[in-house]
Write a structure and sequence with these properties.
By secondary structure, the chain is α+β, with helices and mostly antiparallel strands. The chain is built from seven helices and six strands; from the N terminus they run αααββαβαββαβα. It has one domain: 2-Layer Sandwich (60s Ribosomal Protein L30, Chain: A). Strands 4-3-5-2-1-6 form a six-stranded mixed sheet.
């Protein structure tokens, strides 16, 4: 673990006892490359992540899936798979948002997960499976960061920790040409967020001058 995590106020009994990247590897998650995932903010009107000096990181929603949702079991299964893909994308985004500037932090510095909002696309007024669809996201998140419903939990317990457990809203009734759009808020050590902000700003992708700075530092 980095010095940021080691210096955090997380009680010893609740500290993560595994390397997040070991789970990422076991789950077959592709984190991509610097060149493929780190970009300039030029020409964009929104960002993927915002760092706050309190330690909070806000990740923008991402919409995936090919179908609107209904209570049909096959549609729900499709939505859950799309939700898992959304979680994978957020994990990849968070990895590069934390690491691209070389401040010394990584995914192991996630202290805990604060809140997830899952907006499920369905025009069926009787739709009841919104929470079941968003479970695909929550289960995947807990598989990586810890929680009783994740891949590595046994009998509802995760010996690795519970940093992936989050407050959540799962709401149906939205329109769109995809299945759902989840967003998430996580907590990192404030010391790490301040180091990131001081070095390259609070926004990811990076503002153009900071992008040039980070790319130059890698050469």
């Amino acid at each position: 673990m980095s010095r940021f995590y080691e210096n955090s106020i997380i009680p010893a009994a609740l500290r993560r006892n595994y390397d997040v990247y070991d789970r990422v590897k076991q789950l077959g998650l592709d984190l991509g490359t610097f060149e493929g995932e780190v970009h300039s903010l030029k020409g964009r009107n929104i960002c993927s992540a915002i760092f706050h000096e309190s330690g909070l990181v806000y990740l923008s929603g991402v919409g995936l899936g090919d179908h609107q949702m209904s209570d049909d079991p096959e549609r729900v299964k499709h939505g859950q798979q799309a939700a898992q893909a959304c979680a994978d994308l957020h994990i990849r985004t968070l990895h590069w948002a934390i690491t691209c500037g070389g401040e010394g932090g990584d995914l192991n510095d996630l202290l805990y997960t604060v809140k997830t909002l899952g907006m499920v696309v369905s025009t069926d007024v009787d739709f009841r499976s919104g929470p079941a669809v968003v479970n695909g996201y929550s289960y995947r998140w807990q598989s990586v960061f810890g929680g009783g419903t994740g891949e590595f939990a046994r009998d509802g317990l995760d010996e690795g920790g519970y940093a992936g457990v989050h407050a959540r809203s799962a709401i149906g009734g939205f329109t769109g040409r995809f299945s759902l759009e989840p967003e998430i808020i996580v907590a990192l050590p404030p010391e790490l967020n301040r180091a990131i902000i001081a070095n390259r700003g609070w926004v990811f992708p990076l503002v153009p001058q900071m992008y040039e700075k980070v790319v130059a530092a890698r050469k």
